[in-house]
Amino acid sequence: MKKILLAVVPLIAPLMLSGCSYYNQFVERMHTDTLEYQCDEKPLTVHLNNTRQQVDFIYDNQQQTLTQGISASGARYTDGIYVFWSKGDSATVYKRDRIVLNNCQLQNPKR
């Protein structure tokens, strides 16, 4: 019996660990909201992860991941280069203190 267990455990362990990875991805998706904005320049899709206090979006053909920072009002996320600032149903994206996406309005906001 011990020989069988010793032979089976190395085969089962990787499967069990991969299951944990899928579970973690599932939990991450549960804590992520997808927000659709229409900006003056173009549409913007933002993935808001409240657990990690981060937003992700595509700009300049690259994924930007910004972490929540200090804000006097609204919610401000930054990586030191980009800033995503939202308040209510509107948002603005800055790159090095220059507005790159302006007048972004949340589409189909939850009330």
Note down, in words, how this protein is organized.
Helix content is 26%, strand content 47%. By secondary structure, the chain is α+β, with helices and mostly antiparallel strands. The protein folds into 2 domains: 1-30; 32-106, Lipocalin (Beta Barrel). An 8-stranded antiparallel β-barrel has the order 1-2-3-4-5-6-7-8. It is globular, with a radius of gyration of 20 Å.
The CATH class of the largest domain, by name, is Mainly Beta
Instruction: Please outline the major beta sheet.
Output: 8 strands, antiparallel, barrel
What is the averaged pLDDT score? Answer: 83
The total count of helices amounts to 1
CATH fold-level topology of the largest domain? Lipocalin
Rg over CA atoms, rounded to whole Å, is 20 Å
Helix content: 25-40%
SS elements, strand count:
8
Order of the strands making up the biggest sheet: 1-2-3-4-5-6-7-8
Which percent range describes the beta-strand content?
over 45%
User: Going by CATH, what is the homologous superfamily of the largest domain?
Assistant: C-type lysozyme inhibitor
Q: What is the CATH architecture assignment of the largest domain?
A: Beta Barrel
How widely separated are the two ends? 60 Å
- SSE succession: HEEEEEEEE
* Morphology call: globular
Domain C-type lysozyme inhibitor: 37-98
Pfam family, one: MliC
Signal peptide: 1-23
Protein name: C-type lysozyme inhibitor
